[in-house]
Amino acid sequence: MDIGMIGIVLITLNCIISYKGFTNTLFMDGYKFEIDSILIRKDYIRLISSGFLHVSWIHLIFNMMSLYAFSGILEIQLGWLYFLLLYLVSLIGGNLFALYIHKNHGDYSAVGASGAISGIIFACIALYPGLGIGFFGLNFSIPSYIYGPLYILYTIYGIKSNRDNIGHEAHLGGALVGMLVALVLVPSAFLANYLTILLVLLPTLVFIYLIINKPEIMLIDSYYFKTDKKQHYTIDHKYNENKVNKQKELDNLLDKISKKGIQSLTQEEKKKLDELSR
Fold this sequence. Notes:
The chain has helices at 5-23, 25-31, 35-39, 46-49, 57-78, 80-101, 114-127, 144-161, 168-185, 188-213, 215-218, 235-260, 267-277; strands spanning 33-34, 109-110, 132-134, 141-143. The chain is mainly α. The protein starts with a helix and ends with a helix. β3 and β4 form a beta hairpin. The protein is elongated. The protein is 71% helix and 4% strand.
């Protein structure tokens, strides 16, 4: 499928900014989605910048392949300006939903374009319910009207089980926003595809209501309800633990220098000091 100019620009920006994040921890920390930074320090740019960062090459490549697969048909249908609007509103909408759900989890952080891409995919479901959605490396596809409900079920499972490090809330929020924006831009699609749209939209709205107002039913944590299940060790916990350990190492080296001078450091310690300082 051909890809439009805005699709190419978005993929290029994602690759450049993500690579910068891969090679510069300070850059990643300064622009990722982080609850305290957004709510306390009012660093609202993170609602957008986090959507152009990724945690790994696999994460980046998978998202960009998905964007490539779905962006062409939408950019042709909507035009470049509305397509870009759909992308950005889905990105921000997904992150705002995650911000609301995790508002009392100050150390929660995430990156990735998945919220925006979920919006693109669900916009395609609304406008082209018979569109075949394929899987890379496999020789079959499934109609988007089947893919939509399956995606919602997977999201519900992901949030309930907390078995991975995927920001399912942003996926869900971005998907819902993307579908609604597409229907606003092309209102005739609702009359033509209302059965498919309702099949996807209604369970999504019900689940959003439950996760916000009845989290105990879903057996998940919220900002005012905590389950008794054991806290899972996620990628964010590992990142924060490594950060604390590195700070302790640096403090110990600086303490030794203040007491005995820099000449007291071994070659290995000097190398470690240089590494930690960078």
